[in-house]
Amino acid sequence: MSRPIPTASDVRSAAALLADRVHRTPVHRSRTLDGRAGAELFLKCESFQRIGAFKFRGACHAVMKLPAERRAAGIATHSSGNHAAAVALAAALHDAPAYVVMPRNASRAKRRAVEGYGATIIDCEPTHADREATAARVVAETGATLVHPFDDPDVIAGQGTAALELLDEVPDLDVLLVPIGGGGLISGSCLAVEASGASTAVWGVEPSGADDAFRSKESGVRLSLERPSSIADGLLAGIGELTWPFVRDRVARVMMVDDDRIAEAMRWVWERMKLVIEPSSATVVAAALEPAFRQAGFRRVGLIISGGNVDLSALPWDRTTGS
Predict the structure, then answer these.
(1) Residue 84: is it exposed, middle or buried by C-beta count within 10 angstroms (0-12/13-18/19+)?
(2) Summary mean pLDDT of the chain
(3) For a pLDDT cut of 70, what percent of the chain falls above it?
(4) What is the band of 129 on the pLDDT scale with cuts at 50, 70, 90?
(5) Fewer Cβ neighbours under 10 Å: the N or C end of the chain?
(6) How would you class 189 by CB atoms within 10 Å of its CB: exposed for 0-12, middle for 13-18, buried for 19 or more?
């Protein structure tokens, strides 16, 4: 059965449904950063969202949309990080059991967060195929409903509420820079632009070692990478079936930034803005500082800072000297 394509009105509806569940996250500014970028930058800090990332918006929306009897049977997902914690918390808030399939090599900090919200963790091998196969087995055994990390219309609509808040608060943005992993956030952001009636362009940003969105957009065909690699571990998932048309048809451009620039941007924001952001979030800051982006001549730039969950025992400072 084909899944419905989410719409701009779905994002508006999600915002109303989530109003008393999610935090309206702050927008931060830095004159020094503006000077480096040659533009006014507005950072939508989802690092202050529940579970420390935008992922809670989509997971909570998807759980809330389920009939009560399906929630009672349980919620399942597969994720190595933020979506795992988001589903665990969303399920706990609705008194539903949660079953989270996580790769054996997922960070201990992220596993502790998922366990802390009361979810049952099921280990799998660190491959996309085994994650999906294990999740399918868990669903079959428990009767739980799968909430996919990004290829779910309710998840996409929920993720779009972050950009909708930013566009409501900061009008007349020329462009919105959004990290791309599986594509749920950027798809929802495209719908948020439509819902707001803005003429804002949406640009995606991904690590150069996980550039399937860039390659797919260049070729016009959804491509996958066999072994994506980056310190931005939240962006290693490939573009999904539902999210690919948004990237293909609505995203104006996809930029790539390498891990050294990501680490440098992350360190700069920590040191100068006193904001804890994770590498996936730092991609958009790095992109805004790229000479090619500066040459585009944008005046007002929105950045979705996707999250702030960092393994403090493995900071990437040795990749950069900072500035």
Answers:
(1) buried
(2) 94
(3) 98
(4) confident
(5) N
(6) buried
- Render pLDDT for 75-94 as a digit per residue (tens, 0 to 9): 999 998 899 999 999 999 99
CATH tag for 8-53+153-319 (out of 3.30.1490.190, 3.40.50.300, 3.40.50.1100, 2.40.40.10): 3.40.50.1100
Distance of CA 117 to the CA centre of its chain: 20
| φ, ψ for residue 103, nearest 5 deg | -60, 145
The two structure tokens encoding residue 150: 């990004």
Mean of pLDDT values over 277-294: 96
The span from the CA of 302 to the CA of 225, in Å, is 29
pLDDT digits (tens, 9 = 90+) for 214-249: 999 999 999 998 888 999 988 988 999 999 999 999
Specify the fold of 56-146: Rossmann fold (3.40.50)
**SS3 at position 170:** coil
**Structural domain spans, the chain:** 8-53+153-319, 56-146
Q: Which of 217, 210, 216, 200 is nearest to 166 (CA)?
A: 200
Q: Where are the alpha helices (DSSP H) in the chain?
A: 8-18, 31-37, 55-65, 68-73, 82-93, 108-116, 128-142, 153-169, 184-196, 212-219, 244-249, 259-268, 279-288, 291-294
- Tell me whether domains 8-53+153-319 and 56-146 share a fold: yes
End-to-end Cα distance, the chain: 52
Average pLDDT over residues 309-316: 82
pTM for this entry: 0.94
